[in-house]
Amino acid sequence: MWTVKTLQLGYPGKTTHHGGLGWSTIGLARDGQRVVVLDTGGFPARRNILAGLAAEGLGVEDVTDLLLTHLHHDHCINWTLFPRATIYAETQELDWALSLPVGHLSVPEAVHPMAACARLRRFAAGDSVLPGIHSFPTPGHTPHHVAFALDGAPATIFASDCAKNRVELTTGETDMTLDAAQSAASIARLKAEWAARPGCVLMPGHDVPMVLSADGMAQPMGHLAAGIDAWFGATLAEKTRFDLGR
Questions:
Q1: CB distance 68 to 91 below 8 Å
Q2: pLDDT digits over 168-183, tens only?
Q3: pTM, 2 dp
Q4: CB of 111 closer than 8 Å to CB of 91
Q5: pLDDT tens digit sequence for 139-154
Q6: How far apart are CA 245 and CA 27, in angstroms?
Q7: What distance in Å separates the CA atoms of residue 152 and residue 136, rounded to the nearest whole number?
Q8: What average pLDDT does range 115-132 have in this prediction?
Q9: Which one of 165, 212, 235, 246 has the minimum C-beta count within 10 Å?
C-alpha cells in the first residue's frame, strides 16, 4: 500500500517569450520499504526536490527507485541527483529518445548517459514495475508515454503529461502533443482507469491533484501556487511580485 505526496506541483502554463516553462509535477511514494520518486522535474526543480525530501526526513541517498513516465527534459533530467536509485524507463520510449539527434528541443542529452547507467531498468507499458505499482500505456504526448497506478488508500494515478491539466482532462483536447488522436484515446483510457478506482487521486503533469466528484467531474484538490519576483527599480529592495496562483 503506497502513500503518495508531491515534491513539486506542476503548473498549467507556457511562457510567451522565453521558450518554455516546464514546471511539472514530481511525486514521492512510500510503502514502508521503498522510497520512490515519480518523474524528476527539470533542472530548476532541484531545490524543491531536496526541500521536499528533507521535510519527510529523507535525502537523495534514501530514494530507492525512480519511475519515469516519459523522457522530456522537464520530467527526467534530474535522475543524476539520486546515486542509489534504480531508474525505470519504458523501453520503447527510451529507444525513441535515443534515436533523436543530439540537441533535440524536448529530449535532453542526459538520456544518453542514463541509458548506459548500470542502475537503469527497462520495462514495457503494461508491466507491474514494482509491487503495487502498475504501468499502462498513454501515448500521444510522446510516442510511448506511460502512466502509473499505485495501490493505496487512496489509490493514486500518476498521469503526468497524458493529461497535463484540468482542461485537457475534461475536454480530451491537448496542447503540445505529437499525436492528438492518440492523446484523446489515452485520456479516455485514463479517465476509465480513474473511474474504476473509487476515491482515487489523479496527479496531472502540470496541475494540482484531482479527485472525481459524485457527478463524474474532475475536482481540484487545493490551489495553484506560483509567482515571479522581478526587479525593475533602482535597488534590490524595489521588488515587484507577479502572483500566478489561482
A1: no
A2: 999 999 999 999 999 9
A3: 0.97
A4: no
A5: 999 999 999 999 999 9
A6: 20
A7: 17
A8: 98
A9: 235
Burial class of residue 24 in the structure, from the number of CB atoms within 10 Å of its CB (0-12 exposed, 13-18 middle, 19+ buried)? buried
* 185 burial via Cβ count (<10 Å: 0-12, 13-18, 19+): middle
- Over residues 184-193, the pLDDT tens digits come to 999 999 999 9
Q: Based on DSSP, count helices (H) and strands (E) in the chain, helices before strands.
A: 6, 15
pLDDT confidence bin for 214, thresholds 50/70/90: confident
For 190, residues 6+ apart whose C-beta sits below 8 A from its C-beta are: 138, 147, 157, 159, 162, 163, 169, 202
pLDDT at 236: 96
For residues 158 and 150, what is the distance between their CA atoms, to the nearest angstrom? Answer: 8
The residue written with cell numbers 494515478 in the block is 157
Cα–Cα distance for residue pair 221/233, rounded to 1 Å: 37
Q: HSE on the CB side for 120, CA within 13 Å?
A: 18
Cell numbers of 156, please? 493514486
Q: Are 154 and 107 in contact (CB under 8 A)?
A: no
Which candidate, 138, 133, 131, 229, places its Cα nearest to that of 179? 138
Q: Is 106 helix (H, G, I), strand (E, B) or coil?
A: coil
Instruction: Report yes or no: 122 and 89 within 8 Å, Cβ to Cβ.
Output: yes
pLDDT, tens digit (0-9, with 9 covering 90-100), for 26-69: 999 999 999 999 999 999 999 999 999 999 999 999 999 999 99
Retrieve residue 121's grid coordinates.
531498468
If residue 62 lies in a helix (H) or strand (E), which one and from where to where?
A: none
